[in-house]
Write a structure and sequence with these properties.
Helix content: under 10%
Number of helices: 0
Strand content: over 45%
Low-confidence stretches: none
Oligomer: single chain
Largest sheet: 7 strands, mixed
Order of helices and strands: EEEEEEEEEEE
Distance between the termini: 39 Å
Amino acid sequence: QFHLVEAGGGSVESGGSPRLSCAVPGYPYDTYSMAWFRQVEDKEREGVASIESDGTVTYADSVKDRFTISEDNAQKILFLQMNALKPEDTGMYYCGLAVSPLVDPLKADYMDYWGTGILVTVLS
């Protein structure tokens, strides 16, 4: 069992640019995919951005051109640079790791491991 450790987030002014990070200490494999998801209250966890083992990135339409997903492969740390934040970006952000190639890169069902989530609140 591996635990993903998220950091960053908090309360941010609308238009702000925070960066989230997600570390996977001790994960022994080099082939995997990772993604960021967002969940608001009772809604389903929605995919925000993913990066696959071959470097392919996918973004949800709602964050395209504002968010950037990247990874430090050597350190196994995932990042999400969030720019031009809007109040509707508020939510719990989770990072996920999938050991198999992603059939749908923004679908939560394909993740094998999760972080505990980190709250991002965008102040209007």
